């Protein structure tokens, strides 16, 4: 007989699961109940992931589709979320691509220093599962290009990240991020019309991180006015 719930799981007793469940209940109206349970469990379990040993990347290029203005992206390998129809499945593997080195850093900072480049966006994989490495990169950016904004994608929910211990690199990374596009890609919530608002599925939110940290709850980012009418 087909059940509409999964067997009970110990993760469901945790506050992280409750938080994930509450948010997915509110934001994933197109997603069947059982899928929401799986996604909430996976989100809660991934919070205990400590840190990728090394940073691996597949590419870094100029982009206009992963944040306001013209940006440099950095594709970071390794992700535990396993979203159905992930846009970049090969990069779920930790160690995929090239190990990030001084050579990558130079190319990245050279591009970021260009006067017409607005900032950088970290793309996954799951950037927050390589958080300690990205903190080092963010520090370097703040030193050398302090006027450039830092955006990141993440499969985590911002509510989960802000409640982590301050010592957790996933929480610390937030201190360097200006805008976060949060939540896993959920295929049932895919919305082609949203592709120009930087997200793949409508459950994902565009979060103003400094305001969120100040308020202690998610604050939506207000997009910059643009002359480009193709948005
Ligand atoms: S969080 Fe992103 S990279 Fe990870 S599985 Fe989901 S869509 Fe793919």
Question: Brief overview, please?
Answer:
The chain is 31% helix and 13% strand.
Structural account:
Helices cover 31% and strands 13% of the residues. The chain is α/β, with parallel strands linked by helices and 231 residues long. The protein has a single domain, classed as Aldolase class I (TIM Barrel). It starts with 14 loop residues before the first helix and ends in a 16-residue tail after the last helix. The mean pLDDT is 92. It binds iron/sulfur cluster. Residues 79, 81-83, 86-88, 92, 124-126, 155, 184-185 line the site of iron/sulfur cluster.
User: Count the helices. How many?
Assistant: 7
CATH topology: the name is TIM Barrel
Report the average pLDDT across residues: 92
Number of domains: 1
Order of helices and strands: HHEEEEHEHEHHEEH
Catalytic activity: glycyl-[protein] + reduced [flavodoxin] + S-adenosyl-L-methionine = glycin-2-yl radical-[protein] + semiquinone [flavodoxin] + 5'-deoxyadenosine + L-methionine + H(+)
Cofactor: [4Fe-4S] cluster
InterPro entries: Aldolase_TIM, NrdG, Organic_radical-activating, Radical_activat_CS, rSAM, rSAM_sf
Family: Belongs to the organic radical-activating enzymes family.
